[in-house]
Amino acid sequence: MADTVSEFSEIQDSFLSYIRDIKYATMVTVDRRHRPRARVLLPVWEIVDGEPVGWLASYRTPVKSAHLVDNPHTTYAYWNPRQNAVFVDSVSTWADDEKVKRHVWDLYKRGGPPGVGYDPVHHWPGGPDDPGYHVLRIDPWRIQLVRGSDLRSTLWRKQGPAPAATPYGALSDCSQAADH
């Protein structure tokens, strides 16, 4: 059984602490045949108007792009050997605005949260204007924290409308699914 909180502020410190400790996440997308694809990446996070917003500096690969066009629902899973874990169910969309891309570049350089990030020039030598540099915006609608010492689980769900519709009608409101 999991505890449920209504305000992100109730788990914000634990969320940021776990992210700072673990750093890398497994990003999961699904293809049009409902098959999952996982890859390990390093998102950065900030709190905007009291809610988490994630950013992912990324190459815009054909597979990742095709998956997100068909179904923008993604999960980012963090885990460490002490069994602390974070599961972020979200909608991920490409952010092509130049001002946003520069903001994310700077967030990676300074760390979001502090201690999480890197200098993106190592991957995109042309800076934020490098044609290979792209950004995904991560908008969580459900976050689960698991504390490894006792496997206590805490859930936060974004208040408001259900996640964006997808071509797979049955997947359009995952917030009502069982929390296993």
What can you see in these coordinates?
With 180 residues, the chain is α+β, with helices and mostly antiparallel strands. The chain contains three helices and nine strands; from the N terminus they run βαββββαββαββ. The radius of gyration is 16 Å and the shape is globular.
Percent of residues in helices comes to 10-25%
Which residues form runs of ≥5 with pLDDT under 50?
165-180
Which class of secondary structure composition applies to the elements?
alpha+beta
Give average pLDDT, whole number.
Answer: 90
Largest sheet properties:
9 strands, mixed
Distance between the termini: 9 Å
What integer value in Å does the Rg equal? 16 Å
How many beta-strand segments?
9
Instruction: Give the topology string: H per helix, E per strand.
Output: EHEEEEHEEHEE
Topology:
Blueprint: E1 2-5, H1 12-22, E2 25-30, E3 36-41, E4 44-48, E5 51-58, H2 62-70, E6 73-79, E7 85-94, H3 98-110, E8 134-147, E9 152-157
Parallel strand pairs: 1-9
Antiparallel strand pairs: 2-3, 2-6, 4-5, 5-8, 6-7, 7-8, 8-9
Q: What distinguishing features does this structure have?
A:
180 residues; alpha+beta; 9-stranded mixed sheet; 9 strands; 37% strand; globular; disordered C terminus
